[in-house]
Amino acid sequence: MPDQEQSRSRRHIYAEMTRHEVVRSARKLFGRYGYAQTTVESIARDARVSPATVYAQCGGKEGLLQALMDKWTTSSLVQSIIAECAAAESARAKLDALAKGYVAIYAESGDIIQIVTRAAAGAPAAEAFLKVADERQQHALREIVTGMRDAGGLADGITVEEGVQVIFFHFRYAQFALAADGFGWGAERTTCWLTERVASAILKS
Questions:
Q1: Is the Cα dihedral 172, 110, 107, 75 positive or negative?
Q2: How far apart are CA 35 and CA 27, in angstroms?
Q3: Rounded to whole angstroms, how far apart are CA atoms 119 and 179?
Q4: What is the rounded CA–CA span in Å between residue 198 and residue 171?
Q5: For the residues 133-139, what does the mean pLDDT come to?
């Protein structure tokens, strides 16, 4: 019996290692060539597994794209940002923690965000994954903005939902990347500018 358990454990570890390598290869190739242009065969070749393994372990291209979206939206980093915002005492401190968190997420998963966003333009499954990602982000923002309200920091007449919408609009990756990279502002200046715009729109002065 112990031998059987050890065998199952080894198979599980091997399967997880294989899945990790396949997801890594998909991330690299989707980013380099685009979702539509990347084939299961090319992912399998890069990960040094068979195409059948890509389907069995990861659900093919759609399963891999979903895995990347999950990595972006449910990572331990996301949970730590939510916790840090909850621990901050004032509404402005919560906003500052959130802004810092966005920068960390974009550093960790900016390429994944671009992969999913670009894929969504031509693939219904990718469009659905992007919708899920947006919903997850807004759900987290509701929790954070509710904390700002409970701390007495929201401006008069601003609802939680309006606060969520303002933050979601300003801190979307496309806007952040345009200012930081396209305009050459860099991450620090962009973060400060966006944070001040949001603060002036939803927080008490």
A1: positive
A2: 9
A3: 23
A4: 9
A5: 97
Q: With b meaning 16 or more CB within 10 Å and e meaning fewer, what string describes 8-17?
A: eeeeeeeeee
3-state secondary structure of 179: helix
SS (H, E, C) 85-135: HHHCCCHHHHHHHHHHHHHHHHHHHHHHHHHHHHHHCCCHHHHHHHHHHHH
- pLDDT grade for 13, boundaries at 50, 70 and 90: confident
Please tell me the distance from the alpha carbon of residue 67 to that of residue 72, in angstroms, as a whole number: 9
- Is pLDDT above 90 for 185? yes
- What's the CA gap between 37 and 24, in Å, rounded? 17
Euclidean distance between CA atoms 69 and 114, whole angstroms: 11
Q: Quick one: pLDDT band at residue 2, thresholds 50, 70, 90?
A: low
* DSSP at 171: T
Cα distances from 152 to residues 43, 69, 147, 196, in angstroms, run: 51, 34, 9, 18
Mean per-residue pLDDT, 3-19:
71
Q: Token pair of 130, please?
A: 């992007």
Instruction: Provide the residue count of the chain.
Output: 205
State both tokens at 117.
């966003």
Quick check: 147 and 94 in contact, CB under 8 A?
A: yes
